[in-house]
Design brief:
Length: 85
């Protein structure tokens, strides 16, 4: 997780995936392969009376890499809302 890489326990809910591309002696050259949130952090973000919106898109960078982006969003509960979901 990101907390192990940065020595910062506040970032322990972010899981980082790295792919080893090349080994040079005792050093490994890695590529970033993804990041995701832990399940307990995702559950803590979702609240009753909100709607979860998920989307994804593929974007091509200027150097030719294709990046797939996943977005999670939540709606706010309206002040005049009477019925709960």
């Amino acid at each position: 997780n990101l907390a192990d890489l940065n020595n910062d326990e506040d970032q322990s809910y972010k899981k980082i995936k790295l792919c080893i591309e090349e080994i040079q002696g005792r050093n490994c050259l890695t590529d970033f392969h993804g990041m995701e949130l832990t399940r307990d952090k995702q559950c803590a973000l979702i609240r009753k009376g909100q709607t979860l919106i998920e989307a994804h898109a593929d974007a091509k960078t200027t150097d030719g890499f294709v990046v797939r982006l996943f977005v999670i969003s939540f709606t706010k509960r309206r002040a005049d809302q009477v019925k709960s979901n």
